[in-house]
Amino acid sequence: MTIFVVVEDDKEAQKAIKEILRKVAIQKDNSIEIRYYSKYNKELENVIEDNSMRKVYIMDIELEGKTSGIEIAKKIREKDWESEIIFLTSHDKMFETVYRSIYEVFDFIEKFYDMEERLENDIDLIFQKNFDNKMFSITKRNIDLQIYYRAITHITRDKEERKVLVHTDINSFKINMSLSEIKEKLDKRFIYSHRSCIVNHQRALEWNWSKNYILLDNGKKVDYLSRKYKKEVEQVC
Fold this sequence. Notes:
Layout: E1 2-7, H1 11-28, E2 32-37, H2 42-49, E3 54-60, H3 69-79, E4 84-89, H4 95-101, E5 107-110, H5 115-128, E6 135-140, E7 143-148, E8 152-158, E9 163-168, E10 172-175, H6 179-183, E11 190-194, E12 197-200, E13 204-208, E14 213-216, E15 221-222, H7 230-236
């Protein structure tokens, strides 16, 4: 399921976008849901906060109310770097402002210059892209945890509490399981770097064997690197 979030206050533009989305979805045999908003509100805020689904935002820059499309896109990127953002505008002079303000915009389309054709091509390309939505999921006693694999940087064993810590960019979650039990729930991107550590090798920028640490793509160092696992690491990196 892909959710298309259309933020547009022009009814005719909404109608045109709806027809394009349905046409492409039928051609590609994709299941879609379309949600329409004319301005930023609490419901749209909740959609932005929910990262459980794949989303494509199609937004006008100039909208009803105080919040512009650019400001909404900034709110999206504070929470979500995966969803695609396509901007629509009546003014080509906004092009530079958009690309200076927002990280990773899929496209910028002028409403009165081949909008239908360009938007259809963009959506076609988006459907062709792979979306990594695999999740690490655990439900036990007091734990109900779901984390995207791509969000996990590494997993370590806490010797004192005899628990495992699942680390993401901003949080660490304690789980009463062994490393080997957790390893069975993960895919091939996760490898041992130490007997007390499993690393998402796709998140590793540097393997420093002389100083026994891993540098992650978020700038953090993981001091769990043993030469015992060097062969396994070199096979996948």
